[in-house]
Protein 1
Amino acid sequence: MRKINIESTLYSQLIIDDENKLVIKFQPKTNVFLYCISEMRDKLRKWREENYRNSEQIVDVGEELINEHASKLGDDIWIIYEQVMIAALDCSRDDLAWSCLQELKRQFPDSHRVKRLAGMRLEALERYEDANKLYDSILQDDPTNTAARKRKISILRAQGKSSEAIRELNEYLEQFVGDQEAWHELSELYINEHDYAKAAFCLEELMMTNPHNHLYCEQYAEVKYTQGGLENLELARKYFAQALKLNNRNMRALFGLYMSASHIAASPKVSAKVKKDNVKYAAWATSQISRAYQLQHLPAGVMLTSLALSISSKTPYTTAASAGVAVVIEIHGRRQT
Amino acid sequence: MHEDDSGVTKKRTLQLPSMSVPLSSHEMGEVELSCLAYAKMYLHASQFPRCSVNGLLLSSSAAGGAVCITDCVPLLHTHLSLAPITQLALTQVDVWCSQTQQRIVGYYQANACASDSSPTPCALKIAEKIFEQCNNAVLLMIDGEKMFPGCRVPPIVMYERKDARWALKDKHTIMLRQWEETCSIVNQLFSSGDQALLVDFDSHLDDITKDWTNQKLNAKIMELVSPANGNV
């Protein structure tokens, strides 16, 4: 490219290339540099604080920050090293993880926090025995170190040892009752093991401490729905409704409300009044769904047809599906009426 | 297991162009997996490497004879064993299939734990339900350990219903047309960034403007497929 500086602005140069075409080339100048760095730092901070797991993006942004602009980061650099290292492990970038770890080891030679990161790297390499030894040594020094304990539980999970992971996590929660992350992890483990009653218990703990979180309400409702039986379906409907009250754009809650109300209305065991009420709730849900799709100029066709069919139980999957609710309970070995 | 040498030989027999291996109706138990279905399944599993993912396998060909899996619908990447969204998704896909002359012929799942590709109870239950509607339904587990670039064996383990249980299918009855072209198409999707176009049912519920039937991605894949050979 022939570089003819026709105009040189702070951010760009206009250049005439070999084919005599005008091209804008981004030319970094000092203050543009700093503007970019602070933007990148802010992004990393946001992802860190909100616990995002967008590891590819973190590696992209973080690697550039570390390699090109380390001197301008001040003390932030250490927390960024930690964040980028974990993201690098997630993306199988052992080279990057190793270099971040070395920097951190150099700066904080006896730190338990850095030792835990070393353990995570061993986990990523599937050297679980070595990782466990490292975590055990941390716990010997400091038995209250929650991070090391939770990593040990994660190793059990990675190895597929769900029942042991569940047991350890329960023991952990007896000591550290307020650990939200742990309660949520436990609910996930129980859901995978089809132990819905215990999963519901964990979600109840979470709802108590986070009454405004619509996602916990909705998840609780889903678990109740899966457990099946009239009482659980009514609870499910109530919690789907609660989730909607907290966030009226939660589509899962809207569909869940529809499905639980329809199942209750279709049940032979309910009184005429309950049936009538639930048909009303289901109809309301359908109208809200239809509205949501129409607002986005989307064809609501498939969604509404299938919903209408499921009320009249005309598709094999709903008849099988309502049987499916019962089937799912059967895995668990208990029949609930 | 049975990879490398024996796998390579098997792959060579699978390379025969479709014309010279007519799928006649008495060749029961044969399953053919199209490039489109394979690509979308692979993309789905890659998009959520830390979660278990599942989806449905569809066929646009008539019932009877060999099963041709022509497309797939990625369903969930969270809480596969919770009922409401699974039921919703199954009904939706069923209705959409009847509107588009397709049938649900199978189910696929990729476990979060890459080293464990055995079907979970939830997978077996959903496959059962599909089998009730389609008597040569297949259950397909994606083998995470074989999903590295340059792997010469399809990362697939297929099960079929035999004697009231799900048994491993004979590898000889699984046909993957033009395996190498399929692999290269998947690689192209990754390098062009088009793999991010894939939408599963869960993502649709998070943002209803996203199309869980993946019309855009289907079109992109079919574009890549057609120049490679006249008919797929």
Protein 2
Amino acid sequence: MGCRGACWAKMAAMRKALPQRLVGLKFLRAVSTPSMGALPKRVKIVEVGPRDGLQNEKDVVPTPVKIKLIDMLSEAGLSVIEATSFVSPKWVPQMADHTEVLKGIQKFPGINYPVLVPNLKGFEAAVAAGAKEVAVFGAASELFMKKNINCSIEESFQRFDAVLKAARSASISVRGYVSCALGCPYEGKISPAKVAEVTKKLYSMGCYEISLGDTTGVGTPGIMKDMLSAVMQEVPPAALAVHCHDTYGQALANTLMALQMGVSVVDSSVAGLGGCPYAQGASGNLATEDLVYMLEGLGIHTGVNLQKLLEAGNFICQALNRKTGSKVAQATCKL
Amino acid sequence: MGNVPSAVKHCLSYQQLLREHLWIGDSVAGALDPAQASDLANLYCFQPYVSGLSVSLAGYMAFNHWETSQSSGLPAFVKIVEVGPRDGLQNEKVIVPTDIKIEFINRLSQTGLSVIEVTSFVSSRWVPQMADHTEVMKGIHQYPGVRYPVLTPNLQGFQRAVAAGATEISVFGAASESFSKKNINCSIEESMGKFEEVVKSARHMNIPARGYVSCALGCPYEGSITPQKVTEVSKRLYGMGCYEISLGDTIGVGTPGSMKRMLESVMKEIPPGALAVHCHDTYGQALANILTALQMGINVVDSAVSGLGGCPYAKGASGNVATEDLIYMLNGLGLNTGVNLHKVMEAGDFICKAVNKTTNSKVARASFNA
């Protein structure tokens, strides 16, 4: 994981030679950036395309396509790939095949395949299907919580507590999500103090990492900074991640700010999969390709092979019959 | 994210969200009188030629955010140079009719933008999209407090521009020999000679000249460009009398690290107040690069409404950073721009319908479909 403080980025090795047509990728030489100060040397990317991405696509993707996507992502060097969600198909039909997907994917050594679980029942189903890591989904907004999973924040903690206890007994890691960290589609502004409170609670309950999500992409770098300042007073930076949506084009700038603040785990989605259910026609997740491009340009190690990642993105876009949401993919694939 | 809510209709409308999150306030509130606006601009823009700049503050909350922005080390005021009508339309496949261009520019003039690059006095043989430069220059309504620079590649272009009523011009250099050769068919040294003639004539007539340096973060032919080369070219342009140098990431390949290295080098020779950044969003890096530039003290940013203009070097790729998305970020940071985001979005909607394309602005996409 990344390290904070006075660690200077070193000149990384030259990138592998790429086909001439991939113009922009020639520029991904690691840059010595001693004066950037606190940027981490390594960033762990949590790929949420197969779950957060596909969950928010209009079309339901067939199981074999999902499995192939996840296998391609595994080969691209990603170390964490969120595979699916054990929620009721009544609410999320796109994830109805959760058991088949988790059982069907190749589990590469060294790669984690967390799955979302809303409650103990979902957790048990996930474990039965072979899950070794799960994630629980909280929110910093009462209204969002009510409308999303039909309970209050406090009630959700009780549900998660049951999951965390069971996970601890089974030696299964649990990641926590906090939605609406930079704003809520129902409540509007969310106070950094509230985000810190919910984050602290999840961390103290046993989540090893908390992903702070700008669910509707409304945040900007200043708000990201204020929110992280509040949260970091309660939870160490190494246990934090950011999950920025690109609905208003702010995701990469917000992510950069988070890196400058010492966060070294970033969620993203291949091809920027997933729209935004709150703004029809709008984009959703930050595209993994665009994130990797920035990190490599900054000399930050990710372990990801951008070429293979582009191939995975290309594959799923063809399967979904949609254009990529990644600008890097857009620029490189049409030459 | 959880399941798709059935209660989307209960969401705050995008206008309400924008008001809360963008600190836009009421668009009709808080127009400054010209004297106040001029003081404001002079204080933050280091602009020798600004007078009577009319800034319509989009809400009292902008003032409240100045303290935040100052303490965060970011400039309190950012001048946006709108290049949509020139850099944007020049790179669009469709040639836009003259009357549409004029209407477009007139609409932009009413958004609070203080600089709008109108057209380019280059030969129509090279840039057919700008063939109507004289008609456009003569046809637009020149609002008080708004400046309308035009590109002039040489003395001939400059003279035509002045005859057509131009009161500000720009010259276009590059930090790459290959790019200079392929783009304007001469070496950097030869181009400097031409620009010197133009800038001298301009100064003689009290016409401000802006200098551009293309390929500041990379070249489609040469690959990486050293910061030292960018500095050398910028210094030449500044030395010959350009009041401001816009450093362009022409093919959008830059990332925050390369932006920072380049600016560190250039800022050793040229004061930050005389610099601007012109970021293309071909690889999605523009806003992150702009944020980096702001953190380094730059307070002039070029952008194009709706992200107009593709990239001639990467077919199908996007081009300029969208003005709407830039304003969204600046508003969120509490930085004053004087520009009304809603009106910019409306102008963007107008031009996109006219050229029959979807906007490249994510803010516009999220807002107009909500």
